[in-house]
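To assess whether ligand presence alters the predicted conformation, the chain was also submitted together with zinc ion. Input:
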Amino acid sequence: MTAIDVLLQRHEDGPDHGAPEVPTPLPSLHLTVVTCMDARIKVFDVFGLVHGEVHILRNAGGIVTDDVIRSLAISQRKLGTREVIVMQHTSCGMATFTDDEFRDDLAKDTGLKPTWAVEAFREVKDSVKQSLERVRRSPFIPYTDNVRGFVYDVQTAALTEVH
Ligand SMILES: [Zn+2]
């Protein structure tokens, strides 16, 4: 039995099968949260969220990549969001290797170098700052007055703003 099979069974057994509670795709807090895919981060709990309040964009590192800009542009221009949180975190897997190492591994194993940037980092605060600047300077993102960055401590749950 695979993990996918386990989840399909949970869906069948669940009390409401995850039925949506919100009729509109427009987040009621008009806010998008960009964060890491790290399984330890309980995004809803970190910010006391309920369903329907925010868009959540997750990837390796919580990095503002071109694809995150794509989603933010749609989020703001078509779905009414006006504010952005970028939240990266302590002990992130993205700080355990370098771009060159990973690119070399991929090239060695597959014969192909990726066309995308790996975006590994050493200092999480610098990575948050870089992502904030990408949002603020993007010509596709119309609302940049309230774009704020944070580091979440996965040991203590402390949230530290990055200026
Ligand atoms: Zn991470």
